Amino acid sequence: MNLRFLEAFYWVAKLGSVTRAAERLSLTQAGVSSRIASLEADMRTNLFERRNRRLTLSQAGVRLLPRAERMLHMERDIRLDLDLADPGLPILRLGVIETIAHTWLLDLLDDLRRDRQDTELELTIENTPLLAEQFSRGMLDIAILAMPQAGDGIRSQALPPLQLTFVQRPPAGERRVPRVEVSARELASRQLLTFQRGSPTQTAMMDLFRRVGATPQHVHGVSSLSAMLRLAEKGFGVATLPCDLVRPFVQQGLLQCVDTEEPLPSLPLFVTYRTDPVSNAIEDIVARILFIARDHERANASP
């Protein structure tokens, strides 16, 4: 029984699509279909059923899947025991939220460029809901986002959260200081810039005001950090932004942090990925992501 045929079967079963499996394996759709057909011919049974344009496992496919996974794990263990080369990851489809792009993404890209020259990177920068959808459809290998994902063969690990702060343009005519204190009730009366409605940060901000009995009158949902930063810098309102991002602007006197009686909750971060029974490449990259995120946390204090 050809292990590469089992590998193609495994990824089609996990991702529910020949197209997505082909992308994951860096093969053509015809190549994946040929491997599945050869495996079915070898086993003299259909492994998939096609209903309403959807691909589902047949009864034989359901029985085969855990056994195929064990055989692929066994192959990986043999490679490790005999010090054979890991098959690696030809293409890494990485999705990150924009917050990461403005903080430690470049450190990660430098690391991957230096130590994983055999892997081609396909980078996607989007908001959490879109990344979660793309990951669930098998369009991403690793996603760094603000909510954990769950499912068969899917793992999520918590990353150090990003500390957030309220920031505003310093009032004209006043001495510029890096921090000012404003009550939450007073802040609720101002123009507030935050992430899109329903995001973890927007929800946490609204909960903060709710706890002090205040109701914000003007809340603007902005999906772009760059746009939110620009609006705050021009004095349009008070923004909720990562401390790491605003630090140089605070140091230059262009923005100032706004402290309230309750701190703004941090932005949770998670790295989500699918386990690979054949290669350690995904786990190795996830370990690098964890290291870089933790190193960034140690190196940066709040402004």
UniProtKB/TrEMBL annotation:
Q: Which Pfam families match?
A: HTH_1, LysR_substrate
All residue ranges annotated as the HTH lysR-type domain in the record: 1-58
Gene3D superfamilies with a match to the protein in the record: Periplasmic binding protein-like II, Winged helix-like DNA-binding domain superfamily/Winged helix DNA-binding domain
User: Keywords assigned by UniProt?
Assistant: DNA-binding, Transcription, Transcription regulation
- Output the InterPro entries linked to this UniProt entry: LysR_HTH_N, LysR_subst-bd, WH-like_DNA-bd_sf, WH_DNA-bd_sf
GO molecular function terms attached to this record: DNA-binding transcription factor activity; transcription cis-regulatory region binding
Q: Which family does it belong to?
A: Belongs to the LysR transcriptional regulatory family.
Would you tell me the protein name for this molecule?
LysR family transcriptional regulator
